[in-house]
Prior knowledge:
flat
Amino acid sequence: xxxxxxxxxxxxxxxxxxxxxxxxxxxxxxxxxxxxxxxHHPGVPVPTRRTYExxxxxxxxxxxxxxxx
Length: 69
């Protein structure tokens, strides 16, 4: 397969866009949570994304933090 001079920059751009979208959508957070859960609780099923989001929202409501924005 031939690659042109724009292949590498385009690939980097697309990876950056993918990273950005995963970060703002919360997908990356859930993936990190799953990884930690598997490491610290082997053999215990990983909660679904929906359950994770509920627990996260509950935690934020019960532990508010002041922010500038």
